[in-house]
Amino acid sequence: MKNDDVCEVPFSDEEKVNRLKLEVFNQNTLEVSKIFKALSDDTRIKIAYALTIEPELCVCDVANIVGSTTATASHHLRLLRNMGLAKYRKEGKMVFYSLNDEHVRQLIQIAFTHQEEVKQRG
Hints:
By secondary structure, this protein is mostly helical. Helices cover about 60% and strands about 10% of the residues. The protein has helices at about 15-25, 30-40, 40-55, 60-65, 70-80, 100-120; strands at about 55-60, 85-90, 95-100. The longest helix is centred in the C-terminal third of the chain and has 20 residues, at about 100-120. The chain is elongated, with a radius of gyration of 20 Å.
């Protein structure tokens, strides 16, 4: 079987490769990969997506939305908070979560927009 998705000639643009190696290795890719890892869980992406629609939700509402216990929802929300993707505030005995900032909201919305476009292209 022929691999038509691999270069047939071993050639590399040295100038481009060296420039990009420097750029790539000067970025904190490990921390960025942790963001995507946190969002790669189906329950957490559901929670994050819900928070793009409703800017603030209490833990009990999140649990009901994703169909989990409050303990499970709290665990996922805590992980999102620890990753810097969500923040919380306490009001009496209630705890409310929201996305940490506009960048997080945009990241999630772009991912869902992209998924819809891929689906439409077939």
